Amino acid sequence: MTYERVYDINFQMDKKDIYEHLANIYLDASKKGKKRKKVSARLHNKPFTFGILAGIFCLFVAATVFIPRHKPFSQRNVALVITTDTIKINFNFDPAKKEVASIPLNNLNMATFRSIDFSAKRANYNDVVTLRVEFINSFNEKAEIYLRNIPHRWEGYRLNLADFKNIKDWSSMKELAFIVEEWNATEKNGIVFIDNVRFLR
After folding, report:
1. For residue 48, how far is the Cα from the chain centroid?
2. Are the C-beta atoms of residues 117 and 160 closer than 8 Å to each other?
């Protein structure tokens, strides 16, 4: 008798445990099913979905139409790079009276260009140097612009070609020259550096 009772009690407890376990599984499944129904109801809610899609579309249109696209300077303006090497004008006015760094243009048609762009600096901190920028075309028309007091640190320059008044025909250009003259420098010797020479449209 004792053995059978014990067996019956254990059997009943096992059943109870099983029922409780099954009930917990059912309750968990019911909760997850409710959550899924809510989510799917939102996703299948047509006004809600349409509103999200319309908002995304409006943001895309605003980004592509109204926000300006700024391109880097080089992509927007540079038409022709003349030299990538730094030009060094090493002047010594004893006995020379001027020092010239010339770049042959080989009859380049510059009619569509609007300006020349470059950077320059002097080596001697105490010097005061004026740089002469000169163009010569194939018809020997010559024009120049003077840049006074070239700084000790790099500075960018942009010169409009229209300011080179004596050049009437830019269709066949012979030479570009950078010149330091004795009467335009306070020191007898020094160095002027020129870099990144470009023609811009």
Report:
1. 40
2. no
